[in-house]
Amino acid sequence: MVTGKNTGSATASLIILLVSSSSCLINAQDITYPSVAHHPNSWINVPVFNFGFWDSAGVTPILASGTYVCGFHCESSKGKCLFAVSIFQINSSISPKIVWSANRNNPVKLRATLQLSGKGYLILQDLDGTPVWNTNTTGKFVSGLKLSEEGNLVLFDRNNETVWQSFDHPTDTLVPGQALVPGQKLTANVSTSNSSAGLYSVALTNDSLIAFLEPDPQQVYFGPLRVKHMNQGNIKVQYLNGSFDRFLLPSTSAAQFIQLGSDGHLRAYQLRESKWEPVSDLLINYTGACGFPLVCGEYGVCSAGSCTCPKAEGNESLLYFSKVSEGCHENIPVSCKPSDLHSHSLLELKDYDYFNFIPHIKNTDREHCTKACLQNCSCKAAIYRQQLNSSNGYCCLLSKIFSFKRKEENITDYNSLSYIKVQNPPYTFFAREKGPKSIAAILGSTLGVLFTLFLVVSIFFLRGNKIDLKAVENASRGNKKKDSKAVGKRSTRFSFEDLKSMTENFSAKLGEGGFGSVFYGTLPDGSKIAVKRLDGPGHFRKSLLAEVETLGSVHHINLVTLIGFCAEKSHWLLVYEYMHNGSLDKWIFPKDRELRLSWNLRRKIILDIARGLAYLHEGWTQKILHLDIKPQNILLDENFNAQLADFGLSKVIARDQDKAFTTMRGTPGYMAPEWSSAVITEKVDVYSFGIVVLEILCGRRNVDRSQSEEEMHLLSLFRQKAEEGKLLDLVDELAEDMQPNEAEVVKMMRIAAWCLQVDYTRRPSMTDVLRVLEGFMDVKPNLIYDFLNPQAPAAPCIRAGTTSVATPSILSGPR
Ligand SMILES: *[C@@H]1O[C@H](CO)[C@@H](O)[C@H](O)[C@H]1NC(C)=O
Ligand SMILES: *[C@@H]1O[C@H](CO)[C@@H](O)[C@H](O)[C@H]1NC(C)=O
Ligand SMILES: *[C@@H]1O[C@H](CO)[C@@H](O)[C@H](O)[C@H]1NC(C)=O
Ligand SMILES: *[C@@H]1O[C@H](CO)[C@@H](O)[C@H](O)[C@H]1NC(C)=O
Ligand SMILES: *[C@@H]1O[C@H](CO)[C@@H](O)[C@H](O)[C@H]1NC(C)=O
Ligand SMILES: *[C@@H]1O[C@H](CO)[C@@H](O)[C@H](O)[C@H]1NC(C)=O
Ligand SMILES: *[C@@H]1O[C@H](CO)[C@@H](O)[C@H](O)[C@H]1NC(C)=O
Ligand SMILES: *[C@@H]1O[C@H](CO)[C@@H](O)[C@H](O)[C@H]1NC(C)=O
Ligand SMILES: *[C@@H]1O[C@H](CO)[C@@H](O)[C@H](O)[C@H]1NC(C)=O
Ligand SMILES: *[C@@H]1O[C@H](CO)[C@@H](O)[C@H](O)[C@H]1NC(C)=O
Ligand SMILES: *[C@@H]1O[C@H](CO)[C@@H](O)[C@H](O)[C@H]1NC(C)=O
Ligand SMILES: *[C@@H]1O[C@H](CO)[C@@H](O)[C@H](O)[C@H]1NC(C)=O
């Protein structure tokens, strides 16, 4: 009892201390720090631990003067400290704001030391003694260090003459009274959370102010703006009460500073009601809101302050680029491999401009400008400007791309066109010859197929195996067609001997499926590969060629990369890029409780699958239906980028053809209800996508025989929970961060429901799914949650095919 009481009172006094410190009010008399220190002297970075103002702000003061303090400033959470000068407010609850720091690129730890050496310099050493920063004033006669009322940290000599001062080495901030002189610059932080020197700088060169981006070559986005004050050759831009040279600022008695932000904006901040608020955006009157290099990220396009991704004029398709959190991402990276050089083209953005224009080619025309860019692989984009009353133009070639901006309408003296280089898909692979077929042949084969089909459906279905009707169809048809098609120009043909040595005689097996095994290997250049060896009989040859043909002709970051193949006598092998994290099923149906994906990764994987499918469906002149979307066919690399794999069942149809007649194929549980009619559109992939999304969110299989009768079918549960408004009950309990992201998770479930509509015409296209995922569109209202159970497809009713025969799957099974 007694001990209990004691603990209680101790806690109470601690609480009192904490409460008094959390109010963060300090009295003038709390500031007992000097403004001058004499040499030799040294200070150690140890927190004050008095629950006072400095402690709660993570500051260990050394000198203080006016509203400025100089000392160690630590980020309490990370134990990373800067030796810095900051501006603070007496009797206020706001933390000191750093206006200058010595070691922004090299934070030090607790117990680092600052030493004012007798040899004339100031040096900062980390905990282990490593010198991190010094004033380079060795040999000067320094007698002390002082912090001025303006916030200038000064090393002075016996005559009070300045030997070194922080105002000559600004970081990203200027304070009133401070000036920039030629050669000095402000450099922004890398980001709001990383104080290292970043990309943007504002500098005074000769007599002009410029703002630029650092990478070589320097790219100016503001200025040069000639400065106003130039008396007696003493050029400087001085920050005074109410102005910064040509820029007018609110004149005030409240504290103020100017800071270059990590977004490239130069802003003035002022203390208002105990908050630092931006009161002026200095450069924007000259640049416009879209005139900052990374306003929309790399490859982003800025129009009236809002961001999109580049797309061809009048073309709604989101093919070449996808939106990522910062900027846009090339779906098909431009390749400089000699074999890919001929397949570049330029995406034209009419009336788009760039923040910076260096006329690399003068007195030229549009054709020469675009040609110059296409001929040099380092050129990633070209900007062409033409004066209105002239036939001559200027051409600027870019080797690194930041944001594009829509040309301001009131700039009427020139036209501007931007061209972004993109990688073409090799169309030629789609040009299949379609041999005419006699009705008798079709009928004959169809009847044969129907019969075999029936048997196989019964057998495979009962076993719960994948129905591979195509293989049967082809077997019954015989293998008459010759494999004359152009086989993947992009894919290398390997010899069996080569593959044998690359896989060390097929020693490391990654997985095994019904039709073959997958082995680990390495190419001579060291890149890792997965080699699929087909062990089935000879008629599978054709399907190998089909997969090579389909995969070899598409190239997309979310489709597995087929590196090559081998077709020799009895050896049939496919060579893929090795995917470090294997297939998705291992990650969402975990037996092992260690494996669990965060919500962010789940969302990213869903987005990747959607991009891959959108590309297949709406990519090019022909549509590719994958027809076997399921977690086993989605592979993950070491960064959890998802790629679609296994095109053994895929089907290529003409773009203008919206329906195809085909035989039933796929995997039960993932097959859309309309398969029973055998009239198939790309919406069957959308359906399977919906199932996969649901499985990713719920962390369980669509049909899970290990569950009780009423919990076995995920779709019936989904319907029930949707009606009860308790969708979150379904969420994978292994993912701790899904409940907190409730709104997003529920939105994703509604996308799944949309994709699972029984009537395929009610399902979205994959492009619409992408638009919803990227926030450009909402899920259609009035979804019908009465999902037909796809477990029981009606008796197959196959109609005579009008398209060429597709291929058997020999590539299924685990990888
Ligand atoms: C700060 O507050 C104390 C008491 O709360 C007061 O005596 C002092 O004058 C204040 N100082 C300033 C600068 O307002
Ligand atoms: C001191 O000199 C070093 C090397 O020349 C340089 O990297 C550093 O920035 C200088 N320090 C200051 C404060 O000028
Ligand atoms: C230097 O300045 C201090 C205070 O500002 C003053 O006390 C001292 O006499 C000055 N020394 C010289 C040599 O001017
Ligand atoms: C800060 O940015 C620099 C430069 O980009 C980088 O080297 C450093 O690792 C970053 N620091 C942190 C903590 O992210
Ligand atoms: C830059 O980093 C410093 C130190 O962390 C911080 O005090 C300052 O506010 C940052 N500047 C910007 C613009 O975020
Ligand atoms: C600045 O002056 C130097 C030499 O005086 C000159 O070479 C350079 O071109 C000038 N820069 C600008 C931007 O005027
Ligand atoms: C700045 O100027 C305004 C008006 O001219 C004045 O009221 C204010 O006190 C001045 N501020 C400082 C810090 O001198
Ligand atoms: C920008 O322009 C507006 C309106 O013309 C003006 O009020 C403002 O002072 C200007 N900003 C700067 C920093 O000069
Ligand atoms: C735009 O879309 C059409 C089909 O709608 C397609 O034929 C064309 O190639 C696309 N153009 C570009 C540049 O993507
Ligand atoms: C290609 O472009 C790069 C960067 O724009 C340039 O450095 C290089 O000289 C160019 N090469 C040729 C052959 O023009
Ligand atoms: C063009 O118009 C924008 C606003 O519509 C304005 O901010 C800008 O100053 C104008 N530029 C010119 C050159 O007139
Ligand atoms: C272009 O020519 C027309 C008529 O010749 C003239 O009115 C206009 O001012 C010219 N524009 C420019 C930008 O020179």
Automatic annotation (TrEMBL):
EC code(s) of this entry: 2.7.11.1
Catalytic activity, reaction form: L-seryl-[protein] + ATP = O-phospho-L-seryl-[protein] + ADP + H(+); L-threonyl-[protein] + ATP = O-phospho-L-threonyl-[protein] + ADP + H(+)
Domain Apple span(s) in chain numbering: 336-424
Keywords on record: ATP-binding, Disulfide bond, EGF-like domain, Glycoprotein, Kinase, Lectin, Membrane, Nucleotide-binding, Phosphoprotein, Receptor, Serine/threonine-protein kinase, Signal, Transferase, Transmembrane, Transmembrane helix
InterPro entries given in the database record: Bulb-type_lectin_dom (IPR001480), Bulb-type_lectin_dom_sf (IPR036426), G-type_lectin_kinases/EP1-like (IPR051343), Kinase-like_dom_sf (IPR011009), Pan_app (IPR003609), Prot_kinase_dom (IPR000719), Protein_kinase_ATP_BS (IPR017441), Ser/Thr_kinase_AS (IPR008271)
Residues annotated for ATP binding in this entry: K532
Residues making up the signal peptide according to the UniProt record: 1-28
Entry's localization field: Membrane
Pfam families on file: B_lectin (PF01453), Pkinase (PF00069)
Transmembrane segments: 439-462
Membrane topology field: Single-pass type I membrane protein
Enzyme class: transferase
Domain Bulb-type lectin stretches: 22-168
PROSITE patterns the record matches: BULB_LECTIN, PAN, PROKAR_LIPOPROTEIN, PROTEIN_KINASE_ATP, PROTEIN_KINASE_DOM, PROTEIN_KINASE_ST
Domain Protein kinase: 504-777
GO molecular function, one term: ATP binding
GO cellular component: membrane
Family listed: Belongs to the protein kinase superfamily. Ser/Thr protein kinase family.
Protein name per its UniProtKB record: Receptor-like serine/threonine-protein kinase
Record lineage: Eukaryota, Viridiplantae, Streptophyta, Embryophyta, Tracheophyta
